[in-house]
Amino acid sequence: MSTPTILLIVFAISLIGAVMAYRRASTLAAAQATQLHSRPVYHASYVACWATIPSLLLLAAWLITAPILISTDIRAKIPEETLAQSELTEGLAYGIVESLGSGLRVLPADERETVTDQTPVKDLSALLRKRGVPVASAGADWMVPLAVELNALQVISRWVMTIAVIVLAGFGAGWGYKKIAPRLRARNSVEGVVRGALIAASSIAILTTIGIVFSMLFETVDFFSRISPAEFFFGTVWEPRFSAAGSTGSAGSFGFIPLLAGTLYIGAVAMLIAVPIGLFAAIYMAEYAKNRSRSVVKPLLEVLAGIPTIVYGFFALVTVGPFLRDLSTEINGLVTGNYSSFIQAQSVLTAGLVMAIMLIPFVSSLSDDIITSVPRSLRDGSLGLGATRSETIKKVVLPAALPGIVSALLLTASRAIGETMIVVLAAGVAANLTLDPFQPMTTITVKIVAQLTGDLEFDSPQTLVAFALGMTLFVITLCLNIYALYIVRKYKEQYE
Amino acid sequence: MENMQATFNKGRAVQAAIPIKMTSRDVTVHYGQKQALNGITLDIPERQVTALIGPSGCGKSTYLRCLNRMNDTIDSAKVGGEIRLDGEDVYDSAIDVVELRARVGMVFQKPNPFPKSIYDNVAYGPKIHGLARNKDELDEIVHISLRKAGLYKEVHDRLDEPGTGLSGGQQQRLCIARAIAVSPEVILMDEPCSALDPIATATVEELIDELRENFTIVIVTHSMQQAARVSQLTAMFHLGDLAEVGPTEKMFSNPDDKRTQDYITGRFG
């Protein structure tokens, strides 16, 4: 039976259990003089929990462990000497066995019976191909019995699992139903289940983060075992593929500095433009705008935040970049008489400018929320002393909102650092190390994408460097976020 | 109309011997469609404490906020009638609101020290109005204001600590010091003790009594005892009207108005 079917049956059992429990509890409530501890609906939930939770846990455990157990069992039976003769690795051999085995299940019953341990692999492959099941050509005759056995094991495992899960669901429902009594604290038990579910949800988020970090960590360590960290962190040349072609010994230059410089430079230009504009927009909206204009302007700004960054990339590529280039041509021509552009179409400035447009709504929306949350009493206090509105904002509101604003800005900075699409289209992919904002540069994220796309083996430093870059980027943004938290804490202590 | 005229007369010419600091004639306030004050006429005597009492929502805080035009900060509020400070029309277009608020300071219900040091809290007003030419003068203003507010002894050795770290009563006295520092002529207090415990309340009340020497004070309060303890003149508001106004002693011993009588004896509120 397929897993969705099993789930459906379990839910059906729990539903039936819940309905019965509701009836039973209602009858008890009506019949007995004593009052129920919990309302009937909690008794129903209580039984439903007993029916679903243990059985679903069993289902999950089985689905995870059974394939592992079966695989170890079958792998142990793969003959060593045949593996030594052919070029097959154990993993690949098991893969073929598995695909043969799962192919068997697709065959109609009468055809499946014709397959025995003695069937040559050629016949079986032909049979499967006829049914549209693709089979690797590297099959060998010894695989057939293993495939048959694997298939048998899987079928048995699934049947046992189905029965066990359904029985457990039924048993759970019965157990819960049996415990229904006027004084049963079903309400408290349900509360416990809710709490558990919430804890599970939040730990999934945390575990995922840890998982992501580790998936990068191992590859990063692998990378650093090939390229020395000093070369990576302090190298000023980024040419990973160049010298790798041909000579396998030397791996090319993995200088991280040009990428870091590009990332920080573009980010800094973007923040330099976005922060004042966004902040002033926020101050206007929070302090000066009448309700009516605020109700128009704020949603409009937030629409800007919803535009996918690739669209900003088009904007940079098609409009801003050429515009800046032509503008520089005109300026150069007017000043020196030499009509040649000094701003390239793809440049740090273009990327910074367009990224700033992307960031403005973030800055303004976050800051606006923070500024409006400064208590009105502080404004009144300042105005009551005869301060003007802008004095009040400058001396009272902004200082009070500062920790929030700083953390909003750091959050925005993390976004600027992590941005990829705008940079690809607006600043190019050339890893230059320059101070000239009119030249193209590139960022860490762009290079991660570049290293991971294309036809690369997974054990070359050219690919692994992407993980090192990702890890570094992760650490940088993590530090920014921790710093933001630290600032918020520090000021909160001071101001509350 | 007759009733209005009666209130009009009630508000005026009380204690004719004492000079009048602020006058209001037929002051009305609308919040959007809703009328919150229906023509208040009241004279505020100089260097006296005037208490505004009355049940919640009667308009006493609204009236108080008219006196230094704090109602301007509320978009929907519209003020009518006439308020004069030393004969100058407060709502005249020629008047500078910022200057007015420096002359008519305000202390709020909830202590609202700025998230700055104690020193900077008090120095805030003098700084923005340019009252001190140098650091020494500023120091002096801060110290004098803190002394007048009776807070100096408690905080003189930690002036650079945040004002928000003080206790509630100290915070409120800090706010009073902050208001004093710009040397206003009138101080408006909107239920200044409602967030304080009895001991802090007593300290603030004593302070109000001392401040009477130098400042004209208008205080909104919910506590009858407080009005009786600190004020010389009491005005009773009811549903946006001025029910009665008179010397505090008389108001609490022998009120003319039935509503005042009921309110101070606790029969409604």
TrEMBL record, chain A:
PROSITE patterns (UniProt xref): ABC_TM1
Family named by the database record: Belongs to the binding-protein-dependent transport system permease family. CysTW subfamily.
Keywords: Cell inner membrane, Cell membrane, Membrane, Phosphate transport, Transmembrane, Transmembrane helix, Transport
Name of the protein in its database record: Phosphate transport system permease protein
Function: Part of the binding-protein-dependent transport system for phosphate; probably responsible for the translocation of the substrate across the membrane.
Gene3D superfamilies linked to this entry: MetI-like
Main location: membrane
GO molecular function, one term: phosphate transmembrane transporter activity
One CC-aspect GO term: plasma membrane
Protein location: Cell inner membrane; Cell membrane
GO biological process, one term: phosphate ion transport
Organism: Jiella flava
Protein's membrane topology: Multi-pass membrane protein
ABC transmembrane type-1 domain: residues covered: 260-484
Residue stretches spanning the membrane: 45-70, 159-177, 197-218, 264-288, 300-323, 343-363, 396-417, 464-488
Name of a matching Pfam family: BPD_transp_1
Coiled-coil ranges per UniProt: none
Automatic annotation (TrEMBL), chain B:
Family: Belongs to the ABC transporter superfamily.
UniProt keyword Nucleotide-binding present: yes
GO cellular component: membrane
ABC transporter domain segment(s): 22-264
UniProt organism field: Jiella flava
A single GO molecular function term of this UniProt record: ATP hydrolysis activity
The protein's name in its UniProt record: Phosphate ABC transporter ATP-binding protein
Keyword Transport annotated: yes
Keywords, comma-separated and alphabetical: ATP-binding, Nucleotide-binding, Phosphate transport, Transport
Family matches, as Gene3D superfamilies: P-loop containing nucleotide triphosphate hydrolases (3.40.50.300)
InterPro entries reported for this sequence: AAA+_ATPase (IPR003593), ABC_transporter-like_ATP-bd (IPR003439), ABC_transporter-like_CS (IPR017871), P-loop_NTPase (IPR027417), PstB-like (IPR005670)
Gene Ontology BP annotations: phosphate ion transmembrane transport
SMART domains: AAA
